[in-house]
Design a protein that fits this description.
Largest sheet: 7 strands, mixed
Number of strands: 7
Number of domains: 1
Order of helices and strands: HEEEHEHEHHHEHEHH
Structural class: alpha/beta
Number of helices: 9
CATH class: Alpha Beta
CATH superfamily: Alpha/Beta hydrolase fold, catalytic domain
């Protein structure tokens, strides 16, 4: 395997060598694996703290199998995950292996912002049943971001455009793979950048785009407070089919 700047940085920072940025909580039924991805959050430019899995508290009572990831490098889940993988292909493969081992029938990904991108890219790579992406980016390509004036997180997006990881643009990935079986993108139109990102996937027949109408880029937090998140995840886990709970 060729060394990349990510791998070099990891080998030079031995304190991270034993860090593990994934966790699996096996549930009491084998029907569903729900994967919660941690967003970039407030830790811009510095790795999130270990074990700070964003969805673990929220999903603790669900009877499904629950797997959590953190992208400590904050490269939109396109590179290494510490203790888990060295590339996006290596990240995707264990989900299918775990699904087979646990005899689960369905695989669901969920995340917000950077983790929403991760939910869709990993959902597409695994052919997942459903990706729920809240206020996600749909491309981290520098040229595209410049074309819509999306200048958020410039340091991090510079990195993801210069480290050589695949799949900068989800439109290209959805065209080549078909994407997950279903994708549900939720955003607040008061954040125009999020609306421009979401609209790019609207033409795909297996993608539903929804303006929740509140919360701005942080609408996932507001959805958790007002119960909409619980309603949506309940429906996704309970049904063999995609359910919108508008």
């Amino acid at each position: 395997m060729n060394s990349s700047p990510c791998h070099q940085w990891l080998s030079e920072n031995n304190s991270l060598m034993t860090r593990c940025d994934y966790a699996l909580d096996e549930g009491k039924t084998g029907e569903v694996i729900c994967v919660g991805l941690t967003s970039l959050g407030d830790a811009i430019g510095s790795p999130p703290i270990p074990d700070a899995f964003e969805w673990r508290h929220f999903m603790r009572s669900y009877r499904c199998h629950r797997l959590y990831l953190i992208d400590c490098f904050q490269h939109w889940y396109r590179g290494p995950i510490l203790g888990f993988s060295h590339s996006i292909d290596q990240t995707a493969a264990p989900f299918l292996e775990t699904k087979k081992r646990l005899r689960a029938r369905r695989l669901i990904f969920i995340g917000s912002s950077m983790a929403g991108f991760g939910a869709m890219v990993l959902g597409a790579k695994t052919g997942a049943d459903l990706a729920i992406a809240i206020a996600p980016q749909t491309s981290v390509d520098a040229a595209f971001l410049g074309s819509i004036g999306d200048s958020r997180w410039p340091g991090k997006t510079f990195e993801v455009n210069n480290f050589g990881c695949a799949h900068r643009d989800l439109c290209d990935l959805y065209h080549s793979t078909g994407g997950p079986q279903r994708t549900h993108i939720l955003y607040d139109a008061s954040c125009p950048d999020d609306g421009l990102h979401a609209g790019r996937l609207a033409a795909f027949p297996n993608v539903e785009i929804e303006d929740v109408g509140y919360g701005g880029h942080g609408c996932a937090y507001e959805m958790a407070k007002n119960g909409r998140m619980t309603q949506m995840v309940d429906a996704a886990i309970a049904s063999d089919h995609f359910l919108s709970s508008r």
